[in-house]
Amino acid sequence: MREIIRLKKICAKRKNVYELNIISFEYILLEFKYLIEWIYAEEDDFREKRKHIINVRSKLISAISCKEDYKTIDEIQDLKLIKNP
Question: Residue 56, Cβ neighbours under 10 Å: how many?
Fold first, then answer.
């Protein structure tokens, strides 16, 4: 915790450093605007085959951004990414 406080003080003194409220590196990658274009070519067959999962990604990003419970999204439940107790 001391390191975080120290880092915040150092950042506050700099005009070109911004503190971002980031959930995780994985979320940054997931939210990367051009991720799909970066991974798949325009006419890539896999892009069409994974159309459903790309749609789910979009819904997941939206839910996390709006601080909604992503576990209630039907498509995510259908993928069985969330294990129900």
Answer: 19
| Gap between the Cα atoms of 43 and 45, Å rounded | 6
pLDDT tier for residue 53 given thresholds of 50, 70 and 90: confident
Which residues neighbour 47 within 8 Å (Cβ) at sequence distance 6 or greater? 36, 40, 41, 54
> Is the C-alpha dihedral spanning 44, 48, 52, 54 positive or negative?
positive
The three-class DSSP label of residue 43 is: coil
Could you count the other beta carbons within 10 Å of the beta carbon of residue 62? 12
pTM, to two decimals: 0.54
Nearest CA to 56 among 39, 71, 34, 37? 71
* Lowest mean pLDDT across 31-35, 73-77, 78-82: 78-82
